[in-house]
Amino acid sequence: MGQRIAPDNQEPHVPVLLAEVLSALQPLKGARIVDGTFGAGGYSRALLEAGAQVIAIDRDPNVAPHVERLRSQFPDSFEFVPGTFSRLDEAVGGRPVEGVVLDIGVSSMQLDEAERGFSFMREGPLDMRMAQSGESAADLVNTLDETELANLLYAYGEERKSRRIAHFIVAARANEPITTTTQLARLIEKAIGRKPGDAHPATRSFQALRIAVNAEFDQLVEGLFAAERLLPEGGRLAVVTFHSLEDRIVKRFFDPEKGGPAQSRHMPMTAAPERRWIKVAKAVKPGEDELARNPRARSSVLRSAIRSEAPARAVSFDGLAVPTVRGAA
After folding, report:
1. Do 190 and 221 share a domain, yes or no?
2. Residues forming the annotated binding site?
């Protein structure tokens, strides 16, 4: 995820914020690290080269060539488990782990494959399913009623013109189903226009559909709590996100007091809850050199912290500001 992928016969390019991720997970030599979002294996490779043992997880079957490459090069220190990072503690199977890295969002590998339907820049089926099973983006676009569709685009894509886009979609699909990426992208551009120099008008809508199709916010929250259950005191968690909604969830997960209501000075003081994460690092963003090498890194943010001795919490969405579709627009 977040990795720029070379053709299959070449090594993948460096994933975003690589040096910063490695620093956040130190010390690495001899440590067992879970790469919960394997993608093309950029983080896994760097971790292995630094002397770590890696358990990698991914739900996309198309990662197989990258898995086999690392498996052949690091047979004694690399293991791959197919599945979702939301259940990473189960994937580890009780083995001790010193660190977890999560790179949230769609990978460049998926964006660059037109047949996966993630990109509005490439003609392909309107799919967007990371696991290549279940409900597709086309299913949502062609079956949700206008209000539900508008709410989805607003909540998950922060698309202010969601109602107008939804109205255009519903009118268009009455004549024929919307089945391709470029068909939908042209329709959105027709609905809200495009100003020179602005991002493509379909950007936010495609983000919203992808998040909905893959239940990405649910996966993120479940994965964060799975890492909390898995990591012992002193264990390290590094999370790279690619838009503000994800970053806000991670920020509040590490420091829930910042997401809660302010305590009135007129009320008796209450004890602060136990902190599950300590040494919460400031958010890290890519520098100019990295942005010059990989413009897709521009929205990435790294947050990291160290596990305390406090027992893991039960999974809860409270206080994490997870967007909800119901009544959003």
Report:
1. no
2. 41-43, 58, 85, 103, 110
